[in-house]
Specification:
82 residues, 2 helices
Length: 82
């Protein structure tokens, strides 16, 4: 089990927040690019759809990670109180 100090936990949360912000910028950029493309360029559209899938996978990973760490941190605090 991994335990984090409060300072490490705060730094980790800041990192996750920064990564989420960058993912949002990429999502917006891909959205705008897709809207400005012609439907004739099927290969490019397929590539953009794959990029969107990867961005969604990354977003899910980022969203799941903090909950897992918070649960672990809460468990550690309860164990220390006993």
């Amino acid at each position: 089990m991994v335990t984090m100090s409060p300072n490490q936990s705060e730094e980790y949360e800041l990192l996750l927040e920064a990564l989420r912000t960058r993912i949002n910028v990429l999502n917006a950029s891909v959205f705008l690019l897709k809207n400005n493309m012609t439907d004739r360029d099927l290969k490019s559209m397929e590539y953009i759809n794959r990029i969107n899938l990867e961005l969604e996978r990354i977003r899910r990973l980022l969203n799941q990670t903090p909950e897992h760490l918070i649960a672990m941190k809460t468990k550690d605090i309860k164990s220390a109180d006993i």
